[in-house]
Structure to design on (265 residues):
């Protein structure tokens, strides 16, 4: 569920869930962005873009998985995003390059790779002052460069990201907190499948690692990339690619801990 106005988010939660439960649900909101193609009237946000060459520091090697180069899918300019994210971005990593193993590699290369292994993705930060455009080596694909505008939104979690301990609710009327959200907030569909988003809450019409909790809290959502015919990428039947990172790893700037997951409809 995405809101352009945080005050409107709080009002809707209180109206539908009651003052106390609504306040609890509104407290789960995260700041994020819708990534939309920039046009003449909508300027790109910093150096944010989908596709195109990577923006890497000169000495940074191109990431590989078992000797096969990954493909660059997006660059986020966190300097341009930091003011809106505030404390949700505890560090300023500069440019973030998002790589993933291209599923359209030639079969003889593709068949020997573990598509579920840790090496299928990389998120590589770069100093904006030192970063240079770096072209993908073969056989990695080079997608068209699409500058994007990061539209500021406040996001509420999908019902399946809410646990029973997050909210107070009538347990005789609802089997769990997801039932309450489905019942009272259902027409404000949290499913953002089919769109590109950064930070905030992802589309979680599926179970995603960002939903998992432990003593350190949940993972942080970095990027959601939907199928895009203009860019020429896709991941199975209505597939969406998600990048997440553990809370501690983000706080220390250790993007080696970032993971990617493809989920299909």
């Amino acid at each position: 569920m995405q809101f352009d106005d945080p005050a409107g988010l709080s009002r809707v939660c209180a109206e539908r869930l009651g003052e106390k439960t609504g306040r609890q649900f509104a407290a789960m909101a995260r700041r994020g962005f819708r990534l939309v193609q920039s046009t003449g009237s909508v300027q790109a946000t910093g150096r944010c873009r989908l596709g195109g060459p990577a923006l890497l520091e000169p000495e940074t090697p191109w990431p590989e998985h078992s000797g096969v180069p990954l493909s660059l899918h997006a660059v986020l300019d966190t300097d341009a995003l930091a003011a809106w994210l505030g404390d949700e971005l505890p560090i300023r990593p500069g440019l973030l390059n998002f790589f993933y193993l291209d599923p359209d590699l030639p079969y003889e290369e593709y068949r020997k790779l573990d598509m579920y292994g840790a090496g299928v993705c990389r998120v590589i930060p770069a100093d904006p002052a030192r970063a240079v455009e770096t072209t993908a080596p073969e056989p990695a694909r080079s997608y068209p460069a699409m500058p994007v505008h990061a539209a500021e939104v406040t996001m509420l979690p999908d019902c399946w990201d809410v646990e029973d301990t997050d909210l107070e609710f009538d347990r005789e009327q609802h089997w769990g907190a997801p039932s309450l959200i489905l019942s009272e907030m259902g027409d404000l569909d949290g499913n953002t499948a089919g769109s590109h988003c950064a930070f905030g809450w992802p589309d979680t019409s599926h179970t995603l690692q960002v939903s998992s909790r432990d003593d350190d809290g949940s993972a942080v959502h970095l990027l959601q990339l939907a199928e895009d015919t203009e860019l020429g990428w896709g991941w199975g039947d209505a597939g969406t690619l998600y990048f997440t990172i553990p809370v501690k790893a983000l706080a220390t700037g250790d993007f080696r801990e970032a993971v990617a997951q493809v989920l299909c409809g």
User: Anything to note?
Assistant: The chain has six helices and 15 strands. The chain has a mean pLDDT of 85. The two ends are 19 Å apart (CA to CA). Residues 2-188 form one domain.
